[in-house]
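Problem 12. The chain below contains 403 residues. Write out its predicted structure in token notation.
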Amino acid sequence: MLVETKIDSSVTSGSLHQPGYFLNRQDRTDKGGGVATFINESLQPRTLSALQTKYSSNDIEVTVDLIEAKGPLQKVVILGVYRPPSSKVGWFSTVKDLILETLPYGSTIIMGDINADLFKPQVYPGKALLEVLSLAGTAVKEIFPTRITATSKSCIDIIALPHHLNCSLYKACSSAASDHFPVQANITGRARHKVCPVYKRSYRTIDYDHMKTLVANISIDHTNTDNPDIMLTKWHNSMLSILDQVAPLKPFPRKRNKPKTINSDIRFLLDQRKWLAKEVQKDPNNSKLVEELRIARRKVKSNIRRLQKVRGEKMLNEKDTKGAWKFIREVTFTIKKDPPSRVDPVSINNFFATTVQASSPTVLQVPQSCDSKDCFNINNLSNYKVERMLSNLKDQMICRLFS
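Solution.
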């Protein structure tokens, strides 16, 4: 994140673009100031535009972005802030209101040049800054000079992190571009990677006769070499070229239909529950983690039920009886996942017609009774009765009988 960028609308975002990074800029209209935040695109950043616009109009130079990641990072709001030294006393009160509005989105990370010296925590503005950080549930891991002059040193550039995040490195770096030392913090977390499609070949519509012709025409010149490995490589490359022609690689999505009972919020809760379950396995005696896992499980169930209820009410209000009954079968687990297999009655008839072939008519010997104690009689069945019964059945019922 950069502060005091001193850029305006005449500078295009394209000229500031960094490959693989999302840019959120808040230019200052007066001389100096300005904030620019760069976030890795793998963290799926998005700007909370309504909040950013609201507080920027109240003279707060801030960028407000939400990121999503796996593991302990989860959902985090990143506030990139610049506070000019000439800011009014009410600046910290306004920032407190901003933090209260960001808390429902997740944890908060505050970073920037606040111009409030943490070496003087008992006096304003250092004391006011500590109150803001406490409200956000954050803290600065280590206090060291970020600006040194001939007569003073101060800690006015910070990265304030939530208490539950593991910060493996927090330090000041040297820079020749500013009289402030840039601050670096390394946080443990994993990015949410998008599900990539699977690339494979489809052999359903191949013209195998044409393919046989192409394979038969493969010619390998073995006059210049007798090495079998080289000859095999040439044949393999020729075969791949033919496959690329008749059955090219195509992307197939991993999931054709997303479950209707899960949205992005529930998916976030599932990831949180999974992470907590792993932490409980590592430390099963940690009562705090066990309680958090129990609450996470309840949240998942309640949110799935709520989503089902909303979806059911919507379908019933649309007066779509077919869709309503489909929804009822889904939530009551009475719907069949796989459609019943259908068999062509003509192919069944042809199979049995060619199974038994005799040159002369034979008389069917039907037993009159069985040999067991609880015997029963078998009545003769004529061709006419069989034909009449089959003619009264529907085609779908005939297929079901033979499936």
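Discussion. Residues 313 and 319 are 10 Å apart (CA to CA). Students who got a different answer should revisit the alignment rule from Section 12.3.
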